[in-house]
Amino acid sequence: MQTTPDHKLHVAIIMDGNGRWAEARGLPRPAGHQVGADTVRAIVRSAIARDIGALSLYAFSTYNWRRSEAEVAGMMALLRHFLLVEARQLRDANVRISILGRRDRLPLGLVKAIAAAERSTAACTGLHLRVAIDYSARDAILAAAAAGPEAIAAELGTEDVDFLIRTGGDQRLSDFMLWECAQAELYFTRVKWPDFGPAEFDTALAEYGTRVRSFGGNVEPVRAMAG
Ligand code: IPE
Ligand code: IPE
Ligand code: MG
Prior knowledge:
Elements: E1 10-14, H1 18-23, H2 29-49, E2 54-61, H3 69-92, E3 96-100, H4 108-120, E4 128-135, H5 137-147, H6 149-157, E5 163-166, E6 185-188, H7 198-210, E7 212-213, E8 222-223
Parallel strand pairs: 1-2, 1-5, 2-4, 3-4, 5-6
Antiparallel strand pairs: 7-8
Helix pairs in contact: 2-3, 3-4, 5-6
This protein binds 3-methylbut-3-enyl trihydrogen diphosphate (2 copies) and magnesium ion (MG).
Residues 16, 168 line the site of magnesium ion (MG).
């Protein structure tokens, strides 16, 4: 299933802890999101260097609208800025960008940046970078179910997550990729997202390499990752 030698990893990350990182430094929460955006850049570079097949990042959930208007506006602006600034470099690095989640509640500027980033990287064949914005896994499953069984397979079934990382210390899924994580290995770290660098990413991937994935079988379990 997910264990053939040429299978490229699908890593998903719940990027949590930006606010607490900032508060611990006496900074406003948006400062944590700013530094968190730098972490995204670094981890995407790492994922490219490690030949990871797909990287799915949870950037904004449908529940995050409950936050203050100022924080939400800041996060939307940051996402737009990230896509506008990074899309060209990511295209040059052969990264295909896809955005998951609903778009009808996003600011128009962000919707345009999403469309431009997806369009300009559509032909890229390297890392598939998937960013979840205004995303809920339950909503995604319901939408696929409403579209019919084939849509479930096409929309959800082909993107199984191998390894799910959550930073920030909490051990929950917060409605992220519930379908795709059916057989995912889970990894929780107390490191807050702004402090999660390539070294922490390597530590996590090394841990994944020690996991034995049996997919319910009991014969010859296969190591998650060779080497
Ligand atoms: C994660 O950090 C950022 C997103 C939700 C996108 P938080 O803003 O949730 O930070 P904490 O969990 O409050 O520290
Ligand atoms: C999870 O973080 C969502 C994202 C990273 C986008 P939250 O901080 O929003 O989630 P809860 O409140 O811990 O569930
Ligand atoms: Mg949080």
